[in-house]
Amino acid sequence: MDHKIPNPTLERLSMLYRLLEQLIARGEKTVSSTRLAAVSGIAAHSIRKDINCLGEVGAVGSGYDVAGLRGFLGERLGLDVKRKACLVGLGRLGSAIMAYERLSASGFEIVAGFDSSINRLETFHSNAPLFPAFEITEQVHRIGIDLGIIATPQSAAQDIAERLIAGGVQGILNFTPALIRRGDARVSIIDMDLVREMTILSAKVAQKQS
Amino acid sequence: MDHKIPNPTLERLSMLYRLLEQLIARGEKTVSSTRLAAVSGIAAHSIRKDINCLGEVGAVGSGYDVAGLRGFLGERLGLDVKRKACLVGLGRLGSAIMAYERLSASGFEIVAGFDSSINRLETFHSNAPLFPAFEITEQVHRIGIDLGIIATPQSAAQDIAERLIAGGVQGILNFTPALIRRGDARVSIIDMDLVREMTILSAKVAQKQS
DNA sequence: ACCTGTGAATAGTTTCACAGCT
DNA sequence: AGCTGTGAAACTATTCACAGGT
Fold it and tell me: Is pLDDT of B58 > 80?
């Protein structure tokens, strides 16, 4: 197909994909781009363009079939396969993530947890098997883990990322403020730093006041 | 000054602002845009353009004074004032956020916590005063809180957001997957949804493989 | 030699407008 | 009347190239 989906489009479609799941749960059968726009905040134009980026799927006169569209997006975006993820850092944030049911409900299974403290590993309560951090590369490779979540202190992040990548991970979600430098540009990294987002929010607010 | 800072610029500058703090801590005195580019991953061109968006500050021949640039950005982006924030939802995630020292170290003070469960309020351990959720509007207004963090279940998010806004909050950081609809467009909302980001990451990975 | 600041050129994204279908 | 799909136009953002300073 069109072998290059622009990034903003990818992000909106990922969001729409999850939104469609909610519409299915509500029992809705069809939606129009206008209706999706109202719920998502995305412009109706953009929604149609974005979807068309992946090919045609809507019934031209009436709207989209909700389940059909979800299936279509899932297939084209590669969201129909379950991904194996691991979590590094079993502190407060790690424990919140490990306990977050919506992750597995969305097709992401946390199949391993890592921490550098043996003590933590022994006291931490989880369904997933836990390993010491020095085994990251080995276990990621052995289990065949696709994605890594870093919830360690900032100082450990670069090192952890390198081990994850060495193990064969293809994507990393980084909760630390560290700016990870990667040798292998094929690995995608997304940052979710609370302070950075708060800073942006604060700047937007200040901007609006002046 | 230039009364419209483009959003990508605002985000990069916010990131640079935090980066500069780290450089100061390391004792660096001056930086060039090239060096900032190497550390941040942002193109040197963009860095110079972004900074210039706020006015001139660099010594043309040599680079930027680190502390001077930080001060400049802080002033122009409104990051030099401490912001009062509140946290709604004192579950696992809320407890991780409440315990996150880097927030206060960055000028964001959590001055109130809210939860709908009275039981939680009694057992939760925190320095900030805690209140039942039905008091949100009242307390936000009374204390003069600028920003709200929503770490509740998805089902409560819309309601909480409306109360926060009614209390006079100017920005919201939303950790739930809920797409908040706001009457007042002056309020900025940033979403930090784990599943959404994981979905985007997953789509990027799949995209790269095909 | 290396730096910032900046207009000009390029690339990327969103918005518009409407053809064609139900 | 309301819908999708889509080329064209408008807009936004990034990248380039270099003038001018240290």
Answer: no
